[in-house]
Specification:
Elements: E1 5-12, H1 15-26, E2 29-32, E3 38-41, E4 56-60, E5 65-72, H2 75-84, E6 88-96, E7 99-105, E8 111-116
Parallel strand pairs: 1-4, 5-8
Antiparallel strand pairs: 1-5, 2-3, 3-4, 6-7, 7-8
């Protein structure tokens, strides 16, 4: 069985504009925190398949990009596998709130996140 995509993040210097766009386009509930990061709640299930929707975020950033996060049991081990297969670390394993995450670029430069399956104690 493969590892699931559990979160997505849209990053942009135009974060306020994108928050309004996605709320209007898809009816997503968007909550902004004090740092300008917005939590996205999709509250959805795919009709016909029953696949659950995933939640995400909109982050203020100088660059425009989208990142999907894959849930892994061990961030450092997954990152080592990624590097062995030709990926490049962007952000090494890092505690972020109550989770551990890392970012890498795949061999074509696409940004992908890794997040540990269990929250940090």
């Amino acid at each position: 069985m493969g590892l699931p995509v559990v979160h997505f993040e849209i990053s942009s210097a135009a974060a306020p504009e994108l928050r309004a766009f996605y709320a209007a386009a898809f009816g997503w509930k968007i909550d902004v925190d004090g740092d300008g990061y917005a939590d996205i709640h999709t509250d959805g299930t795919c009709p016909g398949t029953g696949f659950p929707g995933i939640d995400g975020g909109i982050a203020p950033d100088r660059e425009d990009f989208v990142t999907v996060y894959v849930q892994v049991p061990d961030v450092a081990a997954a990152l080592a596998d990624v590097e062995r297969l030709g990926g490049t670390t962007i952000v090494p394993p890092t505690a972020a709130g109550n989770v551990e995450l890392a970012l890498f670029a795949d061999p074509r430069g696409n940004r992908i996140g890794l997040v540990r399956a269990a929250p940090l104690a």
